[in-house]
Amino acid sequence: MRESAPPSAPLSEREPQPAVAADVLPAQSTKPPRLNIGTKGQGPAPTFASARRALSARPQSPGRPTSARPSSARASGDPLAGFGYVTLSPIANGAFSTVCRAKHLATQREVATKTFHKARYLQPGNAHLAQAMRNEIDVLRRLAPQQHPHIANIIEVVETAQAYVAVLEYCGGGSLQRLLQKNGACDRPHSLGLDERLARSISYQLADALGHMHGLGIAHRDVKPENVLFVGVGLETIKLCDFGFAVACGHKRLKTVCGTPQYMAPEIEASGSKEPYAGWAADMWALACCMFELLEGKPAFRGASVTQLNMRLVRASHEAFTAATPQQARALIKRILIMDAEKRLNAHQVMGGMWFAPNRRAAAARAEAAENTPRHPPPTYRDDHSDEERENAPVVMCS
Ligand SMILES: Nc1ncnc2c1ncn2[C@@H]1O[C@H](COP(=O)(O)OP(=O)(O)O)[C@@H](O)[C@H]1O
Ligand SMILES: [Mg+2]
């Protein structure tokens, strides 16, 4: 067990926590819209019980449970106090979940907590929310053993009286969306691209995360700047977050229409009436959109209306490149933003592109250095859900 890792003992080993309300919610966040969702699932209607079952499948303990339950934290009414955490501050408040910064007291490690409020999930007609939550946790659990450096990995899931809480690796450097906005002019979201070296480093890490996920048969389906977080203010390392639309689909094609319109591959829109789509190829499209945006400072696809945006998407008619984008980067982006999904570059091919030669050299040097670092066996997880069950899950719009 890494010294800094919070404990993840089964719930049964923990003392019951006081039944108190979480009261750390900030004002409603302003987020770009996510497209909802025609649910294409043909499987049985999801139930809250199934989500509960999934969530109760907690990681095998990689270490001893903590005994840190300071009375001050308990007295504060923090529902996480019984689990050895103290909630520090709110980060984001979505329609169905709340993200906060917290600290594991025994190790002083900062974490992010994503809280799924039972009251919202138990409401009649909200079974699909429970299914979406279950998907998110399932995917994060599948990803956790490898501890990929560019994924905001799950540490554990705890159940309080009023919520399920996913404890995640904390990224304290803000989102890529925020950086782009800060970097840009005021008259539109952002209009100046990032420095090429930074844009390349972010793109490479994102491709690395996607290559890893796709290798495990997992598609993210909501890749966009808002879901790319910096680990620290130095902006050196990014992590992909928000697995609310992710699915462990293996080689199977997908039917659920989901994502964020500006980053959605044209075949997803088309899949409403036509063929199912490949999850990895849809993620690659979104990656190329992000690469464009990093370099150009504006989204690759824009439209005065959803109809106009869709028309541009289905023609792969992205905004024109300016001199800001170097030739080698353009070449990669152009080989992804093509209609024929099967012909798109995959993540490993993208990482092999000329533009990324400096990143490959740096990664090779890091890998060599890491050879000497002692490794620990990854935690293992119980997983009792079939791929079909996951793919059939409807997904919910959270904004
Ligand atoms: N691991 C994390 N560390 C720090 N901030 C996070 C983390 N995960 C999420 N956030 C913040 O919370 C926001 C919402 O979380 P996300 O998982 O994207 O949920 P939603 O489904 O509401 O978009 C993110 O855009 C990010 O600002
Ligand atoms: Mg998000």
What's the gist of this structure?
The chain is built from 13 helices and 11 strands. The protein is of the alpha+beta class. The chain has a 5-stranded antiparallel β-sheet with strand order 2-3-4-6-5.
Can you offer a commentary on this structure?
The chain has 399 residues and is of the alpha+beta class. It has 2 domains: 25-169, Phosphorylase Kinase, domain 1 (2-Layer Sandwich); 176-361, Transferase(Phosphotransferase) domain 1 (Transferase(Phosphotransferase), domain 1). The chain is 32% helix and 14% strand. Strands 2-3-4-6-5 form a 5-stranded antiparallel sheet. It has a two-stranded antiparallel sheet with strand order 1-11. It starts with 34 loop residues before the first strand and ends in an 8-residue tail after the last helix. Bound molecules: adenosine-5'-diphosphate and magnesium ion. Residues 226-227, 242 line the site of magnesium ion.
Helix and strand arrangement:
Layout: E1 35-38, H1 48-56, H2 71-75, E2 85-93, E3 97-104, E4 109-117, H3 118-121, H4 127-143, E5 154-159, E6 163-169, H5 176-183, H6 196-215, E7 218-219, E8 228-230, E9 238-240, E10 247-248, E11 257-259, H7 266-271, H8 279-296, H9 306-314, H10 327-334, H11 347-351, H12 357-370, H13 387-391
The structure holds adenosine-5'-diphosphate and magnesium ion (MG).
